[in-house]
Amino acid sequence: MFRFYEITTRQRADHISISTNSQSAVKPRDLRSNDKRVLALKKLFEQKYSSGHLITKRGEEAPASTDKKYVLDLSDLGKYMISWHSQRPNIAYSETKIFDKYFDQLFKRDYRPENAQALSFIMQAVWKSWAKENPLGLNESLLAMRAYAPYHHLYSVSLTFCVLNNMAEGVPNPSQAYEKLITGNCFDQIIEISGLCLNSALEAAANEPQPANRVFSPQNWIKTKACLSGIRAGIRQYFTMLPTMPNGKEMSSKIRNALTMDSSSFEARWAAD
């Protein structure tokens, strides 16, 4: 049994799809694949990157002619955006929240494809740090939370710009931040530092005194706002201590000069709570 509707009004058709979605396996992400904002972003993205492809539908595959570095999944983009722009990596695991509760805040009509691709490039580098070889020596508890913690790593990258530019509230523009990392020749270095600061934040939280009859749970910690403030504190402490390390002054000066950004390169955090 199925229903077939022929309707000229797009908005009414969308309302019917949502209202009758009680027995099918259609998810919020699927319902948004034909949203006009998503379609506009897809068009702009693929015009900007001729060898790229924005996957908007579940099960869709990019054409063989595309460059894998420029293939971006809408679901992944939503996770990147809520981690970077909303500074809430602790809810990036939930597609339901991204494509339902926070969709309007995240997928703005004027979102630039350069920012989407910059987030993708940064996250591609982040994922390399979470390989089985564990190149950063991350805590086993973090590695066990691979479905959650890498988005905190992306958040940590954004915080390096906030901390070094004394921006307590602003969020750096992704494409400008990526350009700074590349031109400053410190891309891999910042990916490593931000991962180590996330690791330090976890270990610091694990060593804090716990209430009676309570045991520290990394899985609970990673989903709290205390985790976010702990990462920021870890980054601030790292760059405070860096000049005291061997060759630290030179490294600190190089990174600070490379990542210096004008206040106009930061914008207010997108509300997601």
Can you describe this structure?
The chain is mostly helical. It has one domain. The chain is built from 14 helices and four strands. It has helices at 10-19, 28-32, 36-48, 74-84, 95-101, 103-106, 113-128, 140-143, 149-164, 174-183, 187-206, 218-221, 225-241, 248-259; strands at residues 53-55, 71-73, 170-172, 266-268. Helix 3 packs across helix 7, helix 4 crosses helix 7 (113-128) and helix 7 crosses helix 10 (174-183). It is globular, with a radius of gyration of 20 Å.
Supply database-style keywords:
two-stranded antiparallel sheet; 273 residues; two-stranded parallel sheet; globular; mainly alpha; 14 helices; single chain; 4 strands
Radius of gyration: 20 Å
Unreliable stretches: none
Measure the end-to-end span: 40 Å
Number of strands: 4
* Proportion of strand residues: under 5%
Please identify the structural class as seen in this structure: mainly alpha
Average pLDDT for all residues: 90
Helix content: 40-55%
How are strands sequenced across the largest beta sheet?
Answer: 1-2
Instruction: Note the overall shape.
Output: globular
Question: What is the number of helices?
Answer: 14
